[in-house]
TrEMBL record:
This is Creatine kinase. Belongs to the ATP:guanido phosphotransferase family. Pfam families: ATP-gua_Ptrans, ATP-gua_PtransN. Residues 2-89 form the Phosphagen kinase N-terminal domain. One of its GO terms (cellular component) is mitochondrion. InterPro entries: ATP-guanido_PTrfase, ATP-guanido_PTrfase_AS, ATP-guanido_PTrfase_cat, ATP-guanido_PTrfase_N, ATP-guanido_PTrfase_N_sf, Gln_synth/guanido_kin_cat_dom. ATP binds at residues 118-122, 181, 226, 282-286, 310-315.
């Protein structure tokens, strides 16, 4: 009884929190899980800390929980399963994740460039044998960085590039790469800081990019690796095709050095945040929607299409000049091709609505009847 009372006395104050973890973590569940640890020593309190420290988000309902290793999803399954089910549109604990990356199956992804300004496809990957970012050591971070440098140093042709270690980057390189949106500073993201992922910044961190900066890799930011394909204009088909080829090249080279990505049948690719399980893929466009963005049904329309909006400068940034970053909400339970196609079909519909509203015409026929 004394141990139960002590655990209850330590239950976090979540009454004003709007994240998925806070909606599912009950005092009884906390009592049941708070003394558990993974074999790497990761605890429930470490897992939920980002959700405790960050009650709300301006654009989305974040997961509010992170994993310290692959084992976390099993040891704390009572909570993780509920978070995953809500975050990934009803994905059940007995489901099997499937993959299909074939870019030839993606259709109608060349958008009207009067509306779409740029396209981007990214995916997170973790290297098996290392703890995840919330608890991995300086030695592990440097080991991951070296694996990435070894693999990326063998890329050839259009994927030949250069690696920049953040700890030794010149002020000139930092300035230019920042202006080109190639860099990420995890110390400015509250969720990353609360989870412990920004410890020892910038040690072991870096960015690699091709000569034209259309394909790049972040090393040891939120996850071990973040693989990104991007370009200006409205050709999401080409952006995804480059992503597919570049990621395939990277994985083959990592395997040649004796390493592989972390994944399993149920959760697909394993990454730190439950939002990035499965494919780990986020396809996004920057699109101008001055009329539709002001429509009171806009958020509900995005929800019905399983799309998310955010500011063009990242997760916690405001919408500026009526330009929205629109992306797929799901990562798990769908294939890569399905998710990219969902963004394409959804953005094409949003543009069609925007054109109607510009002419003061009704969009009721395009809006799901339940809205």
């Amino acid at each position: 009884m004394a141990l139960r009372e002590e655990a209850l006395a330590n239950f976090p104050a979540l009454w004003n929190h709007n994240n998925i973890m806070a909606r599912h973590l009950t005092p009884e569940m906390y009592v049941h899980l708070c003394d558990r640890k993974t074999s790497n020593g990761f605890t429930l309190d470490q897992a939920i800390q980002p959700g405790v420290d960050n009650p709300t988000h301006p654009n989305i309902s974040p997961c509010g929980i992170v994993a310290g290793d692959e084992e976390s999803f099993r040891v704390f399954a009572e909570l993780f399963d509920l978070v995953i089910e809500e975050r990934h549109n009803g994905y059940k604990q007995n489901a099997t994740h499937v993959s299909d990356t074939n870019p030839t199956k993606v259709k109608h992804g060349k958008f009207d460039e009067n509306f779409v300004l740029s396209c981007r496809v990214r995916a997170c990957r973790s290297i098996k044998g290392f703890r995840l970012s919330p608890i991995n050591s300086r030695k592990e971070k440097r080991g991951i960085e070296q694996i990435a440098k070894n693999a990326l140093g063998t890329m050839q042709g259009e994927f030949e590039g250069r690696y920049y270690a953040l700890s030794s980057m010149t002020p000139q390189d930092y300035h230019h790469l920042s202006l080109e949106h190639v860099l990420s500073d995890a110390t400015k993201h509250p969720l990353i800081v609360s989870s412990g992922m920004s410890r020892d910044w910038p040690d072991g961190r870096g960015v690699w990019h091709t000569k034209d900066k259309s394909f790049l890799i972040w090393v040891n930011e939120e996850d071990h690796l973040r693989v990104i394909s991007m370009e200006t204009g409205g050709d999401l088909e080409r952006t995804y095709e480059r992503f597919y080829r570049g990621l395939k090249e990277l994985e083959s080279r990592i395997q040649k050095f004796g390493h592989e990505f972390m994944r399993n049948r149920h959760l697909g690719y394993i990454n730190t945040c439950p939002s990035n399980l499965g494919t780990g893929l986020r396809a996004s466009v920057h699109v101008k929607l001055p009329c539709l963005g002001k429509d009171p049904r806009f958020d509900a329309i995005l929800c019905s299409l399983r799309l998310q909006k955010r500011g063009t400068d990242g997760d916690n940034t405001p919408i500026r000049e009526d330009i929205y970053d629109i992306s797929n909400a799901d990562r798990l339970g769908y294939t890569e091709v399905q998710l990219v196609q969902k963004v394409i079909d959804g953005v094409n519909l949003l543009i069609k609505m925007e054109k109607r509203l510009e002419r003061n015409q009704s969009i009721n026929e395009f809006v799901p009847f339940k809205l």
